[in-house]
Amino acid sequence: MSKLWLLLLLVAAFQTVHSYPAQETDYLEDLAGDSQDEERIDWGKIKDKIGQKVTEIVGKVMWKTTKVAWKVIKPGLKLSAKAGKMLIQKFAVAATSLECDKATCKTCVKLTKLGMSACTTTTISSEKSTVYFTVVGELNSLTVFNEKIKLGDMPRCVPAGFIGKVCLKAIEAKTKHDSKETQLNYCLGFLAERYSFGIKFCATYENQHFSVKIEPELFAGGLDEDGDIIIVNSQNESQGAIFGVEEYE
Predict the structure, then answer these.
(1) What is the pTM of this model?
(2) Is the domain of 33 the same as that of 130?
(3) Same domain, 215 and 94
(4) What pLDDT, in 10s, does the model give residues 105-127?
(5) In this predicted model, what pLDDT tens digit does every residue of 180-198 receive, in sequence order?
(6) Which keywords does the record carry (predicted)?
(7) Residue at which a domain ends, from 66, 97, 117
């Protein structure tokens, strides 16, 4: 490991520790206990545990900084995503929890200040070892599209009433195969292209049962020149990443 990389790790750990001063103070106080007798305190043990804590923090920092490959995005996409972020805030947009039953899952996006809701109901199916998702989109309970997409394909954009086009993408995370059942790990993303924001979630399908891994989350973003969905970094509007499964894994 180079000295520069080691320095970056130490700086990251230092910054993280100082961003949670109360938490770390409580942690040290718990180790020391209420006793004021220095002779009864095992300082060696405390030192070891502090080292473990720093290692744990560094690990978390590395996870956050390496999971998503953020890249600088073009100015046009940056402006669009900024507008999408403002719309989410202005109209108090919120995503509902994923509701699943057998092979179907449903989630809704509530535009609270407009008294509107947009819902997607997704049904999983398999044909000749190929996985498909049939996605039904609704606006205020009125069906606006019914589309079948293939797992792993590039996004497909379909008309969705006055919302404009909604782009759909299903991607696969690591899949576990055994002699009895196949565990499918996947993520779905939906982007309202005109309004530059969307929703994404991840789940596992096994034994005809869904388990939610990442609840529906809103994001600001758009499409890149290749037609793929780009999610803009909420902490840095100049950066974006292709919608992927990094968070899942």
Answers:
(1) 0.69
(2) no
(3) yes
(4) 999 999 988 889 999 999 999 98
(5) 667 889 999 999 999 999 9
(6) Signal
(7) 66
